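To whoever is on call:

I kicked off a structure prediction for a single chain this morning and the downstream step that reads the tokens threw a length-mismatch warning. I double-checked the sequence; it's 462 residues and nothing unusual in it as far as I can see. Pasting both halves so you can look.
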Amino acid sequence: MCELILDCRVMPVMTRLWGCGACKERGMNEANAFGEDVKFSPWWWEWAPRAPRSESELPVETEIAVVGSGFTALSAALELCRAGRQVTLFESGPPGHGASSRNGGQVGSGNQRFSVARMNELFGDTHARELLQEGVRALDFLATFIESEDIDCHFRRVGRYRGAIRPSHFEPMVRDHEALAKVTGVEFQVVPKSEQHAEIGTDFYHGGVVLPGDGSLHPALYHQGLLERVEQAGGRVVPFTPVTAFRRERQRMVLSTTRGEVSAGDVVVATNGYTGPATPDYAARVVPVPSAIIATEPLDKELMQTLMPRNRVIGETRRGFYYYRACPERRRILFGGRNAKVSEATRWQDFSHLYRGMVEIFPQLAGVKVTHCWTGYTGYTRDTFPHTGSTDRLHYALGYCGSGVARATYLGFKLAERLLGRAGATTAWDELVFRRFAFPAASRAFLPAAVGWYRLRDRFDF
């Protein structure tokens, strides 16, 4: 009865107060699924452990200081180092401890956020086309970069299946991908529900489309490969050294850190979802949105073949969408979605909505154990597009809005080209106005309510 009145995923507190028997039973089943041995750390780190690092000597000065050590930071640093620049990266914790080694490892253009028609309304036909094509360039750049650098990170263009969660979503999705193909040349395949089992072993979706050019990788191995190449090129990483403030002094930038001050000729801010008080102007423009992932125990090969016969990465049409895939050896499901909890989630209850979502899509997984669950922060902007630019020796690329693997690598490279004064360093995203949130602190505080609201709208389709 309570499921008809109130979605327990939206308001679990009320569920506990009402004491619905079905919900109590479901809660016990979920508790058993997570178990006492569940690890609250990324499954990716089992394959690519974070190498132990200690504080290194703080330099007095550097030619270029990079704040952050994720994909954006390392991509920029690699190109700058190879051009002969002295580059120092400052990280508040171990290198790559944030979203770069925590994300779902799905790779795409990020062009499914708005319909082509809506893009044309917002930006006009010409700029909309340029923005959509820029997303495709970012994806192609990543593929070429990984191949040329010979980074062993299980990158494959396995394709993405995007499922319609309601029958009414199918035709509009197909029409929009037809429009997207005309603008960008990106191929897609229409999959009616009657043929869906060839792509995914569920009846939950009402058909979908396949984007064969999208892919997957192991994000922690990719980060590890990037980090190794930056250090081989002469870049220096200073871990456990949070940057707390900046100031301009005699044509240079002075970074205040928890361990002292450093003078730099230029500063690159590459903090995305971890942008904070050190750069209050950017923090007012990028809101951290928590995302969470669970990893199942190893599954039978036959079951995995049934669930994901073509090893696609999976997305959906709902607002509070889930994203999921098989791990590289195709023995586990990695299942992710937005998390209402803003602080670090360290209880299985903080991830139970993912388990419910997974079993709703794949009833065959009811009772399967979860071995790992973790969170990370994506960086969202007001217009849900990335932003990049430079202002008086301060350079930034921020706000990937959940599509950061390709975009961060691409924009890090473009930032380096800008600092090196090369032609062709601009992107279509440069022209976007980087607007502030009216009340940044309130935006963070209301995130749990927003997540619940999206789930409610998805459930009742309004």
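Update from on-call: the warning came from a stale cache, not from the record. Cleared it. Sanity check on the structure: Residues 1-19 have pLDDT under 50 and may be disordered.
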